[in-house]
Design brief:
10 helices
């Protein structure tokens, strides 16, 4: 279902949270990562063969500064692109068609680059599951936010965002 969701341009965070909620953080993050990667790769292949001209027309001007970076070191830059990307997930799956990224690079760059954020979102879902299991009554928002099952993933997310900003400034603006 997640593969189809991503292929139909769905965004990834609900799938990651749900996977963590249902399968806990470790298995849930791996399940979500594999499903998101397969869905994203299928969307990329579809877009590469059937929508490349349309995508080029709509997005090339906005992302043309990536062209040289992708050509210089495709895998490393794609990995950074996946890790840092502030582009919505569905768009970030089709933009690489402009730069003719190899499918193998897309797949492995996605699976490695998405794992940190997938683990954090799955951990958040797993934390929600634990809080719900512990309480007979629905917890207040303060109780939820003060739970380590929730604030650790939030702190991890903030660290990931700060790292993304630093990497973005170093690699995207040069």
């Amino acid at each position: 279902i997640v593969i189809i969701w991503v292929f139909l341009l769905g965004f990834g965070s609900p799938a990651m949270i749900l996977a963590g909620f249902v399968f806990w953080k470790w298995f849930g993050s791996i399940y979500a990562l594999i499903a998101l990667t397969i869905g994203a790769t299928l969307l990329y292949i579809f877009a590469k063969y059937f929508l490349k001209d349309l995508i080029f027309e709509k997005f090339y001007k906005r992302f043309s500064y990536f062209h040289k970076k992708f050509k210089n070191n495709e895998f490393n830059f794609f990995l950074i692109y996946r890790f840092v990307s502030s582009i919505p997930f569905s768009i970030s799956n089709i933009v690489p068609t402009i730069f003719n990224v190899k499918v193998k690079t897309f797949f492995f760059g996605t699976i490695i680059g998405l794992y940190p954020q997938t683990f954090i979102w799955a951990s958040l879902g797993s934390g929600l599951d634990k809080i719900i299991d512990k309480n007979l009554e629905p917890p207040s928002i303060i109780e939820m936010l003060s739970s380590k099952e929730i604030y650790f993933p939030i702190i991890g997310f903030i660290i990931l965002v700060i790292l993304g900003i630093i990497i973005n400034k170093k690699y995207y603006n040069n």
